[in-house]
Amino acid sequence: MEKRRHIAYAGVSVAMVLLTAACGSGEDNTAGSANVQPAGGSQTVGAGASASPGAGAGAAAGDIGAGAGDEATRTGPAKRLTVEKNAELGSFVTDSEGWTLYRFDEDTPKPAKSACNDDCATKWPAVPADDATATAGIDSGALGSVTRSDGSKQLTLAGWPVYRFAGDTEPGDTKGQGVGGTWNALAPDGKPAGKAAATDDSLQLMVRNDAELGKVIVDGDGMTVYRFDKDSAWPMKTGCLGACLDTWKPVKAVDTTKVAGVDAAKVTSFKRPDGTRQAAFDCWLLYTFTGDEKPGDINGQGVKGTWFAVTDKGKKAGR
């Protein structure tokens, strides 16, 4: 009995060692920290919203203060957008009444979509798209709208859906900043306000809520990324060489501080035979499909029964 117990412990130890190996490869697959600070894009009007709020939205459910203020000004149009400043956030956007406006990391700007619905939308009211104008410091061309799951039109700034926070009890409050690690005040260019955002350029990997496939990973341009059944995750190897690369383009290695909606610790890179670095998620190499013409296309899904969009968990979409 004692001997079997030692053998069992030894088996667990071996398994733990295997699990901590970097995708079973000798290549440098070390991911960076998950200090996610996403940035907005230039898209202003997108397709309809879908999906229920994610983990970030759930985290946002806590600590809503009493005294919610004038409900009409909290749920009505933004009217004239204004740029305010403070020591903590730098420049950020408010509505005409001075209420701080926010963005959600689990939304997407290309195409614009809102992932905050139901209970989430009670705590983070969507700002209506009508009657919005930009003041100095905000590009009026960056204002747009997105159709939400209930059919209403929501204001967007640089493609990012715009919200207020029910926990702000008076104009000028910024209590929604950093809630759940996914909510931030809006900077005038659509990026998250705050000093950490000052050096942020753009997202390189993020998640899009697809009506057919659910949450799938897209690149910084909003193009769907895919994985190939003939690749290997353990050890990491590529099965897409030669003519295959004319149709399926390897996603370049990404900065793990510029991803949103996925576990940055699972984002790694792989050295291809030609010496270039390819991005991988959960040890699966990532590609885009030349048959996709615009952000949101999923024409590569199921091609030859071996190519699949990648879910936010690294699995094959639609399976």
Gyration radius from CA atoms, angstroms: 22 Å
- Average pLDDT over all residues: 80
Main β-sheet description: 3 strands, mixed
Please indicate the count of domains. 2
Distance between the termini: 42 Å
- Report the total helices: 5
Strand order of the largest sheet: 2-1-6
- Return the string of H and E elements: HHHEEEEEHEEEEEEEEEEHEEEEEE
Percent of residues in helices comes to: 10-25%
Low-confidence stretches: 1-20, 25-69, 196-200
Helices and strands: which structural class?
alpha+beta
Report the sheet-strand fraction: 15-25%
> Quick one: overall form?
elongated
Total number of strands: 21
Structural features, described:
The longest helix is centred in the N-terminal third of the chain and has 19 residues, at 2-20. With 319 residues, this protein is α+β, with helices and mostly antiparallel strands. It contains five helices and 21 strands. It has helices at 2-20, 55-59, 71-75, 119-123, 244-247, and strands at residues 79-86, 90-94, 102-104, 108-109, 112-113, 132-134, 143-147, 153-157, 160-161, 183-185, 205-210, 214-219, 226-228, 232-233, 236-237, 248-250, 267-271, 277-281, 284-285, 287-289, 307-309. It has a three-stranded mixed beta sheet with strand order 2-1-6, with no helix packed on it. The protein has two domains: 55-199, no CATH class; 205-309, no CATH class. Keywords: Lipoprotein, Signal. It holds the Pfam family Lipoprotein_15. This is SCO0930 family lipoprotein. Residues 1-21 form the signal peptide. InterPro entries: Lipoprotein_repeat, SCO0930-like.
